[in-house]
Amino acid sequence: MSDTGIRTYAEENRTETAERTENTEDVATCPECGARLKTDTEHGETVCSECGLVVEEDEIDRGPEWRAFDSAEKDEKSRVGAPTTNMMHDKGLSTNIGWQDKDAYGNQLSNRQRRKMQRLRTWNERFRTRDSKERNLKQALGEIERMASALGLPENVRETASVIYRRALDENLLPGRSIEGVATAALYAAARQAGVPRSLDEVERVSRVDKMELTRTYRYIIRELNLEVKPADPESYVPRFISDLDLTDEVERRARDLIEAAREAGVLSGKSPVGLAAAAVYAAALLCNRKVTQNEVSEVADISEVTIRNRYKELLEAGEIATA
Residue 47's CB: how many other CB atoms inside 10 A? Predict the structure, then answer.
């Protein structure tokens, strides 16, 4: 290869290397001279390593205020633990003794050690619930967790329901009412506040109280705690029904349009939001040429087929008025 060819090959390599460097260091280069930036953790600044330009200042040090020089010292000084949660009666601050009868090395405990650990678990459980209020709270929060899991409610709803129950317990609203009733009412209110409501029939199915006690306790809790709960919107039920029936996004959009048209026509007032949502899904499926029966929709929404027939005709009439 000639000298000219060697120089050309070397220049092309340098050009490609420079382009790769520029592409990978767009963020970490100095805006003035293009040199590499470095972080000065002592002064909280980001400066250029060549010209000394201060690019960022007064940066927040998000690390610990202590120093550690080995892993043992780091574990000893660290104060980080599990986050507190309102879904546990002690907010997760107490210690649990594991149920596995094994030591730190994974070896099985002897019979004498197992009996000792069982006694320790018993005493630990007694110390965690020292009075009737904590026992009440433990039972109620366990009930909320059980019902929320059965209804498929997210964690933020469970957290809100736990806070509502704690407020009711602190304000002495439980005398004369069952723990299960107040826990169910708190979960029902939390689901409506979070925009993922469940119907009374669905909640009653997983609860240990009947619908009459649930509605009575719910009204009492809402009134005494001054909770702001908006009326249930039929549109909030539509995504769940669409998912359970395995329908398309087009059907969901059409169902929302039907509900909006009915709202403008004043058809929604005084009618069950669950029935309206189910009827809107059924009507939208028919308009989109999707095969779904009234029986399938009624099973998903847990309402009668008669309600679907009556409501979907009203929705179609309101939709025709809106498009006329």
Answer: 18
